[in-house]
Structure formats: C-alpha cells, structure tokens
C-alpha cells in the first residue's frame, strides 16, 4: 500500500500498518515531517505539491503491491493522473461529511463556532471533488459546551487514527462499508472560510473557536490570522 500525507498522524498510520504485517510500499510526505528513525529511506519520497504527486502516478501504481493508497492528514489534492491510476484511493478526513468538508483546523473551528455537540472523522473514497466521495465509516466523539478548538482537534486526531486502524483490515479483506452517499446539508470550510473567521471576533464563541493551544505551532498561519 501507498501512503500520502504529512505530520505525526501519517506516520502513526504507517507504523500501525507495518506492525500489522501490511506491505508499506512507499510513503509520499510533505515538508512538515521526516520519516522516523529506522524507516527504510527507499520507501519515502518528499513531495511539495499535488502536481508533483500527480506526475508520480505511474510509479505509484507500479510500486503498490495491493492496489491501495491511503491519504492521511494530506495537504495535497489528488489530480487527474492519480484518479486514473487504477489505485483505490481512500482518505481520512477531519470532519463529518458532507456537512464539514475542507481543512481540518477550519472545519473544527466552525464546529465550535456553531455550537456542535458532536463531531467526527470520516473515512471515504476519493473522487474528483474535495471530500465528496462515498463514505465507508465515521468515528464520532462528543463536543462539550465549553470545549475550545484545541480540545476538538485533540479528539479529532484520535478519531482520525481510529478511522484508519479500525478499518484497515476490513478495507484490505474487502469487508469495509458498504460505501454510501451520506445525507445532510453540504458545507465547505476551506482557506477562504478560515480567513473569514478572523472577521467574526464579535461572535460569542469566537475565542473558543480560535483557541488552537498546542496546535498553534502546527497551524502557524491560522494562529496568526485568528490571534491565537
């Protein structure tokens, strides 16, 4: 299997797959992290953009021994060549779909702003939209009334890891799902919505919704824009 993404959550998933005896053929990762000590350097490739990843589509398809590509904390859009590679593309998304598509720190911030009482990580198939593919599983968790963004992101990281670990085996053996198109009102929270959040300082839950806490270093642009 191939992994694409960045950050500690990606490498947790890679380690879990390896510990379970699954073949990790290649990890394509961004600049925020480097492979952990002991990881085979021939099975890691640093990439800078979705376009660069797209140019690797043929190589990834050839190197993948089980036909699976996992997108974990992935900042890169999968483009035309990747979608046509013949690989089965799966993404762990930070938010319940279709209501909270977009960037995880932004989806979680708006969940707090909206006063949501629960949130979720979602495992879904990747199609040519952004977080629009059929859903295989969701891992939900409660959001307390006094929760700040740091709290929701902490729980979201663990929910995302569970969405991967609890479904890795079923995906591999073909028992996951069935994939479904979830109901609900679609919503999207990307870069534009993240920028717009800075103009909502009069909202009574603004401070809760923008308190990144220990995640400030991981999302420095958001921390600066929101005054965290």
UniProtKB/TrEMBL annotation:
Domain named Formyl transferase N-terminal: residues: 86-166
Pfam family, one: Formyl_trans_N
Domain of life of the native organism: Bacteria
Listed name of the protein: Formyl transferase N-terminal domain-containing protein
Natural source organism: Pseudonocardia kongjuensis
């Amino acid at each position: 299997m191939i992994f694409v993404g960045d950050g500690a959550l990606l490498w947790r998933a890679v380690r879990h797959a390896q510990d379970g005896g699954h073949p990790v053929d290649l990890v394509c990762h961004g600049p925020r992290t480097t492979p952990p000590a002991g990881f085979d350097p021939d099975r890691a490739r640093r990439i800078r953009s979705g376009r660069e990843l797209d140019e690797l589509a043929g190589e990834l398809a050839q190197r993948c021994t089980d036909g699976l590509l996992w997108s974990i904390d992935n900042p890169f859009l999968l483009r035309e060549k990747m979608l046509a590679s013949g690989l089965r593309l799966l993404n762990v998304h930070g938010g319940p779909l279709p209501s909270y598509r977009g960037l995880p720190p932004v989806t979680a911030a708006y969940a707090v702003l909206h006063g949501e009482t629960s949130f979720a990580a979602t495992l879904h198939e990747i199609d040519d939209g952004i977080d629009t593919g059929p859903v295989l599983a969701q891992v939900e968790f409660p959001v307390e009334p006094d929760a700040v963004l740091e709290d929701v992101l902490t729980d979201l990281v663990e929910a995302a890891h569970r969405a991967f670990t609890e479904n890795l085996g079923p995906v591999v053996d073909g028992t996951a799902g069935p994939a479904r198109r979830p109901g609900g009102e679609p919503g999207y929270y990307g870069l534009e919505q993240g920028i717009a959040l800075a103009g909502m300082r009069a909202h009574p839950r603004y401070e809760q919704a923008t308190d990144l806490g220990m995640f400030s270093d991981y999302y420095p642009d958001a921390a600066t824009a929101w005054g965290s």
